[in-house]
Amino acid sequence: MSRTALASATLLVLSVAAQAQTPPAPNGAASAPAGAASAPGMPAARPPADPTAPKPFAEVIKGAKEQPGLFPIWRKDEKTWIEIPKEAFNKPFLFSVNVANSIGERGLYASQMLGDDLAEWRRVGNQIQLIALNTKFRTDTASSKLAMEQSFSPSLIAGAPAASAEHPDRKSVLVDASNLLLGDIPGYSTRLEAAFRLPYAPDRANSYIESTRADAQLSTLTSRVHFATQRIPAPPLTPLPVPMPTPPQATPDPRSMFFSFVYNFRALPETPAAVRRADPRLGHFMESYSDLGNDVKANPRVHMVARWRLEKKDPNAALSEPVQPIVYWMDKNIPAKYREAVKAGIVEWNKAFEKIGFKDAVQAKQQPEDADWDNMDSTHASIRWFTGSDVGFAIGPSNKDPRTGEILDADIGMSDVFGRGSRRLADDLATDAGHDHGSSWMGERSRVALSEQLCTYMADQASEFGFALDLLALRDGLDMDGPEAEALAQAVVKDVVMHEVGHTLGLKHNFRSSTTITQAQLKDKAFTEAHGISNSVMDYNAYNLPLKGEPRASLTNTTLGAYDYWAIEYAYKPIPAEQESAELGRIAARSTEPQLAYGDDFDQGVGGPYDGFDPRTNQRDLGDDPLAYARKRLKLSQELWERVQARKPQPGEDPLRARRSVFESFRQLGMTANNVSKYVGGMYAERVVPGVTSATAFKPVDAAQQREALRFIAGGLLSSNAFKFSPEFLATQTVDYNEWERGLPLSIPDSVSALQGRVLDRLMSPNTARRLIEQSSYLSDSQRKGAVSLSEVYGTLQQAIFSELKTGAEIDRMRRSLQREYLKRLQAQLNRSANGATVYADAFSMARYHASQLANDLRTASSKPGLSVETRAHLAESLDLLNGMLKATMTRT
């Protein structure tokens, strides 16, 4: 084309473009030239359209299909929009998040509830915000509300631009669900970093909205979110002082993984449920807040019982069906052979509701095999089966209306440990990995939510299940794949389901209820079948295994206990409003009845200062004498060890079977060691209500029991004679050569050292020292004379651990390990600069006194003739270490 022709074409294009930008005149009139003033009587020219303005509603959803609901959902191809009516802005609803699909390791499992928030939509200009409201602080007065809004911030869950202009008739706008929900709302990048110490982040480009559902009360969207990290760092050239976790092992490529998050937008009940105040003498989950509208009350905290809304159809009938029963949907992924046991565990709770006038209050329904809905939405309470590479636990969390504590949803997750564990026995590495399964940053005050939802009952049940099956198989010839083992597996499934359903009905753990059944009752088959082996299914009850020659009764809990009936009565009994305060006081006043003894997770011990100082509140003990049970547990373990060593391996069996049996026995014995150690320096705690309860709030454990526990520890748990394994047995324990991480030869001294370390950790802790020093404050003058002193405890331990120094005997490998563990803890006691103010001056001086005595004994023993090189070297090393401790400059605090 010539230059002239090109210039002419350019002018033509510019002319056409100018005409296109000039608005047409009405009624076919000629347009005015650009920039010219409008003629008199003619309408002004319209300004150019704003390119940033949202498109019309109808244009955005053209060709899309609507799902009507609380917030209608529109879908077209890969695009998804949420429609928000104008009147829905600034109106609270419940927002919750569940994870439907996960990676199956290190606390990241499928079928888990992650949390909930009281939320609302807000619009700021063109920005749509999903806001979590602050429910921690509340008031009824207008002035206090203004002050709280200024003082305490809400949180932004997610935000996105409006995707459309307001609909002229529906008065609603659209928001793009991908812009809103494909980020890291659950905070999973932090959880992944905590698990693997790698910086994973959501990858929006490869994430999408997977499925949606909506009805009048609910809108649910499931997002499939891809998390990735660019690279896996190379391992360090030299080992780190603190071992680092491995990258993900269950994914094909550890740099990439998908999660399915189920986001629920649920309408709150139009009429809030009636509030029932909590009482500390019983254990209910609570919705708690600080009431800042009343400056007269010293304690502003308010605690509401978490419970389902349960109302009689016929309020005048002694026994009536509820208006709305509590329905648990059994997920279609539950194996068919366990469904009846799951159902039995659910409906067992009807016995407690019948006592307070409700018929069929709790119902179990099976999700159809062809169901196209996922019961992880927030309108289906459910029980789901999930799997993991390193997991064996169940969990029973719930979502609540923050205004009242009304439970609106619950999804119980059960791992498949019984499908695997009952036949192969639980893997020694598959019992502790699931302990993070309550944590998240989602609304429900994550620290409190974690303490409420944390439940390792199934993990512990599975572990002890392996121990019980193995012992019964070796003692009585029980067929691991036979009907008796299957019946036991079914009983354990029912027991676990009863426990987890109890959580979703609002009940906390009760770790003291097992001490309310006598040793004689535990041996009575008729009694245990009728009443169970504990007065609550909310305890972590040990298996009721008999010693050799004793009669066998029920091995697990078969039914609800007295405490369970009582807790349900308090939470759910229909009471007229004007009578509620007096009637609830009457119900709670029964707390002094022996069968209703109660102790929660903090009483049992959760760490730090809450180390569980009441020896009656334990996990995995049984019967009214925990000391007697500890002795029994050691005997059961010793019987298993004898039988495992005597058993001849069979062709084709798992090469790790005997090794797993040994690990399981030590795991159970480790719990017992911790429980029996609580007696030393222990305190009995009672839940006293001032002016109502006359009992003593705190009382030191009887001195005779403290000394009995010390004798058992010194003569049993710290004695090498308690752990007998033949060289021939150890030499035959092979490893799994098909696996890369095949393990090392079986080390009994390592297992014993770990168990004994738990005892030393407790008895030599600052908390125990403090209680032993302070217990005299709680005793009369006559009682103080026979009290157990800190010096007695340290002296008894030291004498038991270093008994060879007096006798001149050789010190074997196991005893050398124990003595080194003792010296490590003694060094920590003497290092006040490390401990700061945690070590009492009296405890420090007592530890130093006994360390000096030990140094003298080591010096004397080192000079005795006839000792082996190993013993002489160990004594020299110990003395050198001890002298270094005593000579070190101590920082005075």
Write a structural description.
- By secondary structure, the protein is of the alpha+beta class.
- The protein has a domain at 57-231 and 253-266.
- It contains 29 helices and 22 strands.
- The longest helix is centred in the middle third of the chain and has 22 residues, at 483-504.
- It is globular.
- 42% of the residues are buried.
- Mean pLDDT is 87; it is low at 1-40, 419-453 and 889-893.
- Residues 45-54 have a biased composition (Pro residues).
- InterPro entries: DUF5117, DUF5118, EcxA_zinc-bd, MetalloPept_cat_dom_sf, Zn_MMP-like_bac.
Q: What is the tally of beta strands?
A: 22
Summed up, the helix count is: 29
Radius of gyration equals 34 Å
Distance between the termini: 94 Å
Q: Kindly report the spatial arrangement of strands forming the biggest sheet.
A: 8-6-5-4-12-11-10
Structural class: alpha+beta
Strand content: 15-25%
Helix content estimate: 25-40%
Give a quick account of the main beta sheet: strands, pairing sense, barrel closure. Answer: 7 strands, antiparallel
Could you list the spans in which at least 5 consecutive residues all have pLDDT below 50? 1-40, 419-453, 889-893
Mean pLDDT: 87
Shape: globular
